[in-house]
Structures are given as structure tokens and as C-alpha cells.
Amino acid sequence: MLKRLSIKDFAVVSATELEFGPGLTVVSGETGAGKSLIVDALGFLSGLRADSGMVRHGAQRAELDAEFALEDSPAALAWLREQEFDDGAGCQLRRTLRADGGSRAWINGRPATLSQLGALAALLVEIHGQHEHQALLSRGSQLALLDAFGRHEAELSAVAQAARAWSALLRERDLLNAAGDVSDRIDFLGHQLGELEREALEPDAIADLVAAHRRQAHGAELVEACDTALERLGGDSDALPAAVQQLRGLLARMQAHEPRLGEVDAMLEGAAIQLDEAAVLLDRIRADLDIDPGQMQQHDARLSRLHELSRKHRVPLEALAAHRDALAAELQSLSTSAKRLEGLGAEIESAASAWRGAAAKLGKARAKAASALGKATTALIGELGMGGGRFEITLEPTAGDAPDAQGGERAEFLVTANAGQPPRPLRKVASGGELSRISLAIEVAALGLDAVQTMVFDEVDSGIGGNVAGIVGRKLRDLGSRRQVLCVTHLPQVAAQGHAHYRVSKAESDGMTQSAVRLLDDAGRQEELARMLGGIEVSREARAAAKRLLREAEGTPAA
What we know:
Layout: E1 2-10, E2 13-19, E3 24-29, H1 37-45, E4 61-69, H2 74-83, E5 90-98, E6 103-107, E7 110-112, H3 114-121, E8 125-128, H4 139-150, H5 153-178, H6 183-197, H7 203-217, H8 219-232, H9 240-254, H10 261-288, H11 293-313, H12 320-383, E9 390-397, E10 409-416, E11 424-425, H13 432-445, E12 454-458, H14 466-480, E13 484-488, H15 492-495, E14 500-509, E15 512-519, H16 522-534, H17 540-553
Parallel strand pairs: 3-13, 3-14, 8-12, 12-13
Antiparallel strand pairs: 1-2, 1-4, 4-5, 5-6, 6-7, 9-10, 10-11, 14-15
Helix pairs in contact: 4-12, 5-12, 6-12, 7-11, 8-10, 9-10, 12-13, 13-14, 16-17
């Protein structure tokens, strides 16, 4: 819902700020006062192309700012989150139009493109009037309104789900077909995998092999070193253990003179124990050393094969096992692709059949809803002063066999305002006033079921008067009970139906014409309606008639 609209240096408006609430808000004023500037401002905030002629004379730029509450606009909230423009439960649209023809736009204070501004505004406000920016002229919006009227949520969900399943299978088939004939690749992978699987390639196995090879390569040196160490750790008088014991004896004699030598003796005792354990382990290692030229050759041969595989597959030794597993996975995938491709044909046909069934069910529901909405709108068109007018909705099948999440048809709104004339697409209706009233009839007939919460009608009462004007006003008020409605009008019968009323006036200041917008209280509304009824000279009769219109709008009998 639109909460606030701020306009600065826009056309003949110097600066104004308007606040809006729920229900029907009407805007009136003298001819040329700038009543439609509010609609124009919302149009530019909805992404219309910049027009430097809309910048007030003498100003560098026009500034437009609108604030919306989004509690009842889940689609807009979802769009803001997706585009990373979200900022709580509100939304601010801002745009500047420069006198040199440029413009800039912001969403919630962040720079935005005009396409982003237009995409978001389409979820927030619909403008119906004598301008190009009208949501109901879009065939996508027409289909969405028809589905909302028919309450086709369940059918749409089923169609969309079936379309996604069908599309996923088609993409899988395309990927498999893109691989082409994989028999050569399967043979190549089988050969490579065979030579890799003949070797123990796990990192631990390779590490053990390298260690064993190193022991064999340095076997003589290892034997000599072990023998020398064992000799030094043996039981001879010049061996290390004997020397340690001699030191302990020497220090024991001196311990009475220096107690701290006891700590040294304890350390030497531990060292003697460690030397004994080292000698035992060294003896075991020496016994394990076996210089075997044949084993050395085996280790050399295995390492040579591993290094050859490493060079051939261009991976380090320690990565050979992972490379082997990757080749095995690819071979498994390719080996099953042909079987998968055969099975996909049946799955795709089943998915297509499921989509066609869901789409047919949705199509029947749409046809029923189109007939009901067409009849209801035709009746309202007659009430709105276009006797003989007719509204129809045609459903045209979509082209091609591709899965479509929106179903198998598109809607086209057709209308004729005169009896005997064939209906034409709504977007080709020439008369702006007729188009506004037709849009109003469609929205009222659809009970305001589309997702957009704010609807703007510009000069919806153009070319009508009398009883028809009263009917238009009541229909707008009815629509305002379900949606926020803004209406620019020049008819008192329509203005009287508003829940709120703004008056636009113009005056000359410093040689320049300026417009001002004022929210009217009850007395001001009565005076404005009297002016609209009686012209420049407001008579007592005009004021009485204005009072009567207001009382009738509120459902109170005239006094």
C-alpha cells in the first residue's frame, strides 16, 4: 500500500508531500491545475523513460519519492530479498529527473536500474488511464488476473511442478547426447585403470616401499653403524655404560660434601637405564638388517613403475590412488550412460504426459473462469455508460512442445465499447476514458483479486455524467474496500465516494504558475464538491447538493 508520495520541482509543483491510507482516495481540481501530476509521478517511479520537460522551469532536477508498506505484498517482499534490496517490511522508491534529460533511481536507498524499478513497481501499483503504463495491457498480467479470479493456485502449482520435472529430464538427455559416442573413451579408461589397479597405490603403501628401498640402498652403512654403536654400548670397560657407572661412583664419594650431587646421580642412573634399552633396540634393528640384492632389485622395479605411472598420468606419486579412483568413477558413469539414455526416453514421455494432463486441467479451469469474468465485466461495462459494449477473454494455445510452467495457453482480453463492433485486444482500444472504465470494470468484476495492492485510475470518468458517474463512483468505492484505490476525477459524483479527498489548485507566484495539493476536511470537501457542481460561482443549491452527495456516499439518507 502506498503510504507517502513526495514531489519536488516536478512540472508546476514546487514541493508537496501527500499521505495515503486504505480505501478510495480521490484527487480533483480545476482544469489545468495538474491533477494528473500525481499519476505522472507514480508513472516515473514505475520506470517510465525520463522526460526533461517534467522538470520545473528554473530547477536543475525533479525529485520523486514514494514509500510503500509491504505487509500485504509478499511478491514484492520476495523480489526485494532476491535482488538484495530488502529493508524490513517497507519499501522506498526514489527517482530524480535532470533538466539535461538524465535520471537516477534508488530502491531503499540503494542505486537501481530503471528495469529494476519497473519490475518492483509492477508488483506495487497498477496505473489505469490515458497513459502507456497500464498493467492490464500486458498479456502476462491478463493471464495472472484470470488465474487469480479463478483461484487456480493448486492447478498452477501442479503444472509448474510437472514442467520442472519434464525440463530436468530433457536437460539430462541433452547432456548425455552431447557426450556423443563414448565407446573409445570407455576403452581408453579401461586400459589406464587396468595398469593402475595392478599396483598398490595407497599413500601408506608407497611410503613403506620408499622406506624399504632406502634401507636396502644403505644396508652396508646401516650394518656398520649398528655394529659400531653396539660395540660402544657393550660390557667392555671402555664402553659407555661402564663409564657412566664410574662417574656415579666418583660422585657418590663426594655426595656427603654436596647434597645436590644426588640429583646428578639420579640423572646418570636414568641415563644408564636408557643406554641399556638403546642397546637392546639396536641389537634388534641389527638383526633385522638383511642385505638382499634380489629384494633390492624388486624395490627398484616397483619404484620405477610407480614413477613411470606418475609421469604418464601427470600426477605426483601420492596422488596416484586418487587419480585411479577418479578414472574408475568416470568409467562407471560412462558405462551406465547408454542404459540411462535408453531409459530416459520413457521417463520423458511419462513426464510430458503428466504435464499435459495438469495443463489440460488448468486449461479447463481457465476457460470456465474466462467465461465468468467475461460475463461479469460485460455487465459492468454496460453499467458504466458503454451500452452494447462487450468483454471477452480468448485463450490461445502456446506454440511448441516445450514444458511451460504457466500452462498450455495465454490469455488475451478483447473488448468493444459499441454494439455491432467486433471485439479487439484491450491494448488496441483507442479512447483513454473508455480504457479506464473498462479497466475499472475488469478490476471490479475480478474483485480486486490480483496481487497488486494499489490501483490508480486517471480520468476514469472521462466522457460520462449523471447516473453513470454515480455508478462509477460506487464501483470505485467498492473496489477500495479490497484494495487501495487512487482516482483523479472531475466529477462530483465520483469525488463524493472517496474516503479521502485531495484538491489540486494553481496560482501565479513571481510570474510563474505553481500547483499546490491540499488534503480536504469535511467542510473543504463539501465546498470542493459544490465548486465541481456549480462552477466558479458556488450557490447555496450547489452546497446543498454537495452535502447530499456526501451523505449518500456514506450511506446516510439526505435530510
